[in-house]
């Protein structure tokens, strides 16, 4: 595994940053185009992150760009409290502007009738930018993804779980944006019995100033053919603040809308981009 990582990241260290920028600006941003003619990515705008909302960005980071997103979440459910520490998501643009490699693994602590601490299973994914927005036709990306059973005994699924996430978004005006995601993933219940689940989200974003933006989001996680897992709905919102074009802070808070969902959660994070 270490050799694979070295082969993937070796070009990033060998090629000067200005060369990546020249290649990035002139190469196509997506695999396809609604008009049939793909547009170059051009100069990078301010950092676009997958956090803090459930709906991830429908864009990739760009060729040669490294982006690290981190955060903390506290959640309360039926008298038990959980802490998700760090929440690191590493996003790396490789090979083309439309190709992004993704890794994540977070330490988690749960306190209730007992207490458990450990790492979740490692997440690995590829984000592929399919189209840019063209009028009412959305910006679209797809993320084939999976988790690998490397986590602690209390948090691991004990098996590899696969899935896919379809992302789509629209810039409505300079101030308002709208997006969503539709996911299908494998999962396991508390007894480690496997089942499939859908997840759907819709989010509205608004730019308040050049640095400050807000969002409001609904999402649902829907099990398929599982006797022990119920559908959960959530409503959450938050703010992001740009310290610079490459550094962003975020905060969020949300509430469960179902009897079996978490009662509430709050979190904060920071994201960095190197290009």
Folded structure, characterized:
The protein has 275 residues and is mostly beta strands. It contains two helices and 15 strands. The protein has helices at 2-14, 17-26, and strands at residues 66-77, 80-84, 89-93, 99-104, 107-111, 115-119, 122-131, 139-148, 161-171, 176-188, 194-207, 212-224, 232-244, 247-256, 264-274. Strands 1-3-4-7-8-9-10-11-12-13-14-15 form a twelve-stranded antiparallel beta barrel. The chain starts with a helix and ends with a strand. Residues 4-15 have low confidence and may be disordered.
Count of beta strands: 15
What is the average per-residue confidence, as pLDDT, rounded to a whole number?
90
Our Rg estimate from Cα atoms comes to 19 Å
- Count the helices. How many? 2
Structural class from helices and strands? mainly beta
Poorly predicted residue ranges: 4-15
Please tell me what the overall shape is.
globular
What topology, given as strand order, has the largest sheet?
1-3-4-7-8-9-10-11-12-13-14-15
Helical percent range?
Answer: under 10%
The ordered H/E elements are HHEEEEEEEEEEEEEEE
Strand content: over 45%
Assembly state? single chain
Give the biggest beta sheet: 12 strands, antiparallel, barrel
What does this entry show, briefly?
The chain is mainly beta and 275 residues long. It is built from 2 helices and 15 strands.
Throw out a few tags for this protein.
275 residues; mainly beta
Summarize the SSE layout with pairings.
Elements (H helix, E strand, L loop, with lengths): L1 H13 L2 H10 L39 E12 L2 E5 L4 E5 L5 E6 L2 E5 L3 E5 L2 E10 L7 E10 L12 E11 L4 E13 L5 E14 L4 E13 L7 E13 L2 E10 L7 E11 L1
Antiparallel strand pairs: 1-2, 1-3, 1-15, 2-5, 3-4, 4-7, 5-6, 7-8, 8-9, 9-10, 10-11, 11-12, 12-13, 13-14, 14-15
């Amino acid at each position: 595994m270490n050799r694979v990582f070295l082969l993937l990241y070796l070009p990033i260290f060998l090629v000067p940053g200005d060369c990546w920028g020249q290649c990035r600006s002139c190469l196509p941003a997506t695999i396809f185009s609604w008009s049939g003619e793909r547009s170059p990515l051009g100069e990078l705008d301010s950092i676009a992150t997958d956090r803090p909302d459930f709906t991830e960005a429908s864009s990739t980071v760009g060729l040669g760009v490294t982006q690290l997103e981190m955060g903390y979440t506290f959640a309360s459910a039926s008298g038990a409290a959980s802490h998700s520490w760090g929440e690191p998501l590493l996003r790396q643009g490789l090979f083309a502007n439309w190709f992004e490699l993704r890794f994540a693994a977070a330490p988690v602590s749960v306190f209730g009738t007992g207490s458990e601490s450990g790492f979740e299973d490692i997440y690995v994914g590829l984000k592929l930018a399919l189209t840019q927005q063209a009028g009412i036709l959305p910006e679209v990306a797809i993320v084939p993804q999976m988790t690998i059973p490397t986590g602690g005994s209390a948090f691991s699924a004990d098996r590899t779980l696969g899935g896919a996430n379809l992302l789509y978004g629209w810039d409505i005006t300079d101030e308002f944006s709208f997006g969503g995601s539709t996911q299908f993933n494998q999962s396991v219940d508390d007894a480690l019995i496997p089942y499939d689940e859908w997840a759907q989200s819709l989010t509205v974003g608004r730019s308040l100033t050049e640095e400050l933006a807000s969002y409001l989001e609904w999402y649902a996680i829907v099990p398929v053919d599982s006797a022990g897992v119920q559908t959960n709905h959530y409503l959450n919102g938050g703010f992001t603040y740009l310290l610079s074009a490459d550094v962003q802070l975020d905060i969020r808070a949300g509430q469960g809308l179902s009897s079996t969902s978490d009662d509430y959660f709050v979190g904060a994070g920071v994201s960095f981009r190197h290009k």
